[in-house]
Specification:
about 375 residues; alpha/beta; Rossmann fold; Zinc Finger, Delta Prime, domain 3; two-stranded antiparallel ribbon; 7 strands; binds zinc ion
Length: about 375
């Protein structure tokens, strides 16, 4: 139910208010970092919009308003929705390219949301009448990856979706969307969650408090990502601890070996990751793991820059103060800033799928180039 969405009262309130006064925009952008409930909210919102006899329920999220509309859970629409087979509900994501009938398209790696996917799975399908409910719903995941061609194709549909359809774009980077796309949608902001809420949630699932706190900080308040990282096997937290330990002792002669270790550390959790996120391709997951490893390095060097004035408790890597201290001593603040810049460049290489096997080697050799490394 919408009212049960974890810690997104404001966003949910915006939606239910629109519903209650019967003025529901046909195109929404749900904006915010990954893993804070955008997709879950979009699902519950879709279920309500498709429901054939919506009910009124006490809304625990906003008791001052008393009641909020909710899906009934019993009608044919709700029942179909619950078993994931509602004919009027469509989830659009970049990996759909692989389901395309054209073999040449299937071979392509889905890095962005290509126009073929938007045409075949959204623009063409929106023309068909709904078959079970009064309207149709299209949720587009990773809308920040819609390329210009895809967005231009979408414009007309966003402006006036036929057949009482609703379109929800889930987006982590609003800047990636064209002004013409944004102006046709109502934007609902989803904020990051408080550290304490995430720690409470994870420790209830038997995650160690120290680990929970680290993931809450690293992910910047993304409960979904923190939850995912804590569930990976082999332990991703174990990998992060070894990573900082190795980096704090790393010498330039070890760069190639260390890069190999980083490559295997990023592919190790992919099997368990795939079990948790079924519809994502293995290469995409390895890329995500690499990005996560680089974000750990960014957090470590950011900590190293501020350890002298902020103290260990405020750091993301509060759990490895010795390693951060060693990094701070070996690399001065300027080198730390330079390495953080290199890390961002590495993320861009990973996103663009450039030299996938060599990205870490490139990063480490460049780190070693910071001559400021004092051999102790
Ligand atoms: Zn219903």
């Amino acid at each position: 139910m919408l009212s049960e969405i974890f810690c997104q009262t404001k966003a949910v309130d915006t939606l239910t208010r629109a519903y209650d006064c019967g003025r529901i925009p046909h195109a929404y952008i749900f904006e915010g970092i990954d893993g804070i409930g955008k997709y879950t909210t979009a699902l519950m919102w879709s279920k309500l919009l498709l429901c054939k006899s919506p009910a009124k329920n006490i809304a625990p999220s906003s008791p001052q308003r008393g009641f909020a509309a909710t899906s009934c859970g019993k009608c044919p629409s709700c029942l179909a929705f619950e078993v994931d087979s509602h004919p009027d509900f469509h989830h659009i994501y970049k990996e759909l390219l692989k389901l395309n009938s054209d073999a040449n398209k299937r071979k392509r790696q889905a890095l962005d949301l290509p126009v073929d996917v938007i045409r075949d799975f959204l623009v063409d399908k929106v023309q068909l009448k709904p078959s079970l409910s009064e309207s149709k719903i299209f949720i587009v995941s990773e809308a920040e990856k819609l390329n210009t061609e895809s967005q231009n194709l979408l414009l007309k549909t966003l402006e006036e979706p036929p057949n009482k359809s609703f379109i929800i774009l889930l987006c982590t980077k609003l800047d990636n969307l064209l002004p013409t796309t944004k102006s046709r949608c109502q934007i609902v902001h989803f904020g990051p969650l408080d550290e304490e809420k995430i720690i409470e949630y994870l420790t209830e699932k038997d995650v160690n408090k120290q680990e929970a706190k680290f993931w809450a900080r690293l992910t910047g308040g993304s409960i979904g990502q923190a939850d995912l990282f804590s569930k990976l096997a082999p332990s991703f937290y174990g990998i992060k601890k070894e990573l900082l330990d190795r980096f704090s002792k790393f010498q330039s002669a070890d760069a190639v070996d260390f890069a190999q270790w980083l490559n295997s550390a990023s592919s190790a959790p992919s099997e368990s990751w795939q079990k948790l996120k079924g519809d994502t391709s293995k290469s995409d997951l390895t890329r995500q793991a690499k990005r996560a490893i680089v974000s750990i390095l960014i957090s470590a060097f950011t900590d190293a820059m501020k350890i002298s004035f902020a103290g260990a408790e405020k750091m993301t890597n509060f759990d490895q103060p010795q390693q951060i201290k060693r990094l701070a001593e070996r690399f001065g603040p300027e080198a730390c800033a330079g390495i953080i810049e290199l890390c961002y460049e590495t993320v861009r290489f990973i996103d663009a799928s450039v030299n996938e096997k060599l990205v870490f080697e490139h990063l480490l050799l460049n780190c070693a180039d910071y001559d400021i490394i004092k051999i102790s």
